[in-house]
Each structure stands twice: as structure tokens, then as C-alpha cells.
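Weekly structure sync, notes
Attendees: PL (lead), two postdocs, one rotation student
Agenda item 3: pending single-chain targets
PL asked that the sequence for the first pending target be pasted directly into the notes so everyone works from the same version. It is reproduced below exactly as submitted, 288 residues in total.
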Amino acid sequence: MKMKRHLFFLWTFSILFTISASSQDTIRVLAIGNSFSQNAIENYLYELGQEEGITFIIGNLYIGGCSLERHWNNATNNKADYSYRKIDSNGEKTATPETSLLQGIADEKWDYISFQQNSGNSGIIDTYFPYLRQLTTFVKENATNPNVEFIFHQTWAYAKDSNHNEFPKYNNDQQQMYRAIVKTSRKAAHKVGIKMIVPAGTAVQNGRSSFIGDRFCHDGYHLTQDLGCYTAACTWFETLSGKSVVGNPFAPATITPLEVLTVQRAAHQAVAKPFKVTSVRLTSNNKK
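Predicted structure, written out during the meeting:
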């Protein structure tokens, strides 16, 4: 009888431990990126996770405007050119200058490592290769987690009135740029075997279809601190966690409840349909 009781308590403890562990997941994600990864994961992703019992440990190997070609050159020459931004398990943020790719990769047993092209070349497939293939091979060889998964970060098209000097590559046409990014991100990820795409570009375009309109960029290409960065963070959250972001109680205080629901739905629909715009038509009289 005592043995049976002992086994019962062990079994009960095991179940409770499993439930506790699953409710306090830790997800470690590293971006090999630039200012667009800064927009997407350095703002709000940690807080969205906390609301769902998920702790995000976030790293960003940052160089403004950095292309895949430059990332690859830095890798081959072990150049300490990065500002390594990190958000730890307590939500504390640090920035370490003069960091190399190898140092950032080795800092944690990352669950996910993401790649992206710089914004001006994001829709031009010829600028991705051979650098993306070389980078993914390099990172796979040096990652401390043998089960690390790679992510492709699908970035967003510029605002319609953007004066970015690379917008003419897309005839200064937001829709043309968006379509090029979608096509190119899908093709590039497939060519190197990346199965996970974070469709931040589609989420922003979904949001632009709503009453919010083209208010997601503050300078024509970088995301606004509130609506824009929150939309991207919602997209990353749902992609990485597998949990719907719709209804998550965290949001910047500067966003109205209707705007929160709209961009949450924009992100949710992007994860469901990452290569196609889904219109989000919510009004104060229709929040379903």
C-alpha cells in the first residue's frame, strides 16, 4: 500500500511539474539583422510572451542597413562589427559593442536564429545568393544547440510616400515592393531549406488595409514605435509561440483598443496566410 501511495505521489508530482514547465516556457531567439530586426523583436515581444507565461530571451546582432553580403563578409573575417542587443529572462536590456557573429551565436543555446536581407534589396533575389546559403551553413556549424531552427524574417514594404533612396528599385510603388518581398522571401527561404517564415511584411500590409491606413512607418521605412513595432512583435510572437496573439492583454499605452485588436488580427491573419494580404475591416461598431 505504501509503495502504491509513493508511486501515486511521484506520478502526481510529475504531472504538476510538466504543467508548470509548459506554462513557463523559455524561447531563445537570435536575429542576424539590422534596424528592421530591431523594430521587430526589441520592442514588445518580451512583454507579449510574459502575458502567456512564455519567457523570451532575445538577441539581435545589429548593424544598421546590414546586407546578407556584409553579414557573410563579417563571418568569414570574424569582424567584431556588431552591436549585440540582448533582452534577458528578466526583461533587462543590454547592448554590447564590437561583437562578432561567433560571439553572438555562442552566447546562448538559441532555439531560433533568423536571417533577413536589408530593406532596399529585400525584394531582389539576386542579392541573396550565395550569401544566404553560406551564412546558414556557417551558423549551423557554429550554433551551440544542434536542434536550432532557422527563421526567415519577411520584412515590410516602404510607406507610399517614402523618400528612401532605394524605393525607385520598385518604381516607388508600395504594392510592387510588397509583392517582390513576398515572392523573394518565399523563394530564398525554400532554396536554403528554411521552413519558418515570420511574415511581418504581410502583417503590416494587412494593417494598412484597415482604417489605420498607411501609418505604420515614422520615416517612410522604419516602423513607428507604437503601431508598427507592435504589429511586427505580434507576428513574431504568434509564429514562435504557436499561440494566437488575438486577445493578448499587452499593448503599448499609446494605442487605442480598436487599433490593438486590428493589428493583432493583422498579425494573426498574416501567420495564417503569409504570402497574401487579408483585409482587416474593423470599426468601433464591429469588433468581431
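Discussion points:
- The chain has ten helices and seven strands.
- The beta strands are 26-33, 55-62, 82-87, 93-99, 112-115, 149-154, 196-199.
Action: rotation student to compare against the earlier draft before next sync.
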